[in-house]
Amino acid sequence: MLSIRLARKDDEPAIAALMKLAIEQLQQGYLTPEQIEASKAGMGLDALLIEDGTYFCVEDEGELAGCGGWSRRATLYGGNHSAGRDPRLLDPASERARIRAMYTHPDHVRKGVGRLVLETAEGAARAEGFREIEMAATMAGKPFYERCGYAVESEWHDTNGAVPVPLATMAKAL
User: Fold this and answer.
1) Which domain holds residue 153?
2) Nearest to 41 by CA among 29, 28, 23, 57
3) Is the separation of the CB atoms in 67 and 58 below 8 Å?
4) Which three-class secondary structure state does DSSP give residue 45?
5) How many domains does the chain divide into?
6) For labeling, which of 151, 156, 170, 173 is most exposed (least CB within 10 Å)?
7) What predicted TM-score, i.e. pTM, was given to this entire model?
8) Which of 91, 74, 12, 23 is nearest to 45 (CA)?
9) How far apart are CA 105 and CA 117, in angstroms?
10) H-type helices in the chain, by residue range?
11) How far, in Å, CA of 136 to CA of 133, rounded?
12) Which strands make up the sheet holding 55-60, listed edge to edge?
């Protein structure tokens, strides 16, 4: 049975390990091996999400099954190590909240982990007055987000790594 809770600082090592595993396994078939490796430069843990209380851990009988969250800050994607981060607070009246850093353990795909995180994050953003939400989606995640009501606004490439990695900006009204 799935449960969701706010992530804590002491979850960071387990979250980072899950992210690495998800990137390496779940991007196969969508990215080349070189793109998978390069994506690690642009993806990963943003500890500010945990500090802000907007990041969640999903557990399945005590095991970390996934993680993800939302942000009231301007950074669209990326981890602590990624270029282009912007900690500015967004204005809920005129700007979109962000869905951030969604990862599912490969052993727990298609069990409702991602949907639980999305619904929790969307509800929290709505409660803070945001009317829209957006994300930088991976090619592997794009079909799932489309099923959840997100629309592709643009496709582009993350250039943090050695080779460009395709991403899509997707948005949804709350």
Assistant:
1) 2-78+87-173
2) 23
3) yes
4) coil
5) 1
6) 173
7) 0.96
8) 12
9) 13
10) 12-26, 33-39, 47-52, 113-127, 142-147
11) 11
12) 2-6, 55-60, 63-71, 97-104, 132-138, 165-173, 151-158
Structure tokens at 28: 């196969």
Give the Cα-Cα-Cα angle 46, 50, 55 (nearest 5 degrees). Answer: 90
Would you state the structure tokens that stand for residue 37, as one six-digit string? Answer: 């490796």
Amino acid at 1: M
> b or e along 47-78 (b: 16 or more beta carbons within 10 Å of the residue's beta carbon)?
ebbbebebbbbbbbeeebbbbbbbbbbebbbb
Q: How far apart are CA 74 and CA 170, in angstroms?
A: 15
User: Alpha-carbon distance 163 to 122, whole Å?
Assistant: 32
Q: What is the DSSP letter of 160?
A: S
Please give the share of the chain, as a percent, with pLDDT higher than 70: 100
The first and second tokens of residue 63, run together, are 């095991």
Residue 172 has pLDDT above 90, yes or no: yes
The token pair that represents 118 in the structure block: 């999305």
19 beta partners: none
Residue 58 sits in a domain whose CATH number is 3.40.630.30
Largest CA-CA distance found in the chain, in angstroms, rounded = 41
Position 66: which residue type?
G
Q: Is the pLDDT of residue 83 over 90?
A: no
Strand partners, 169: 136, 154
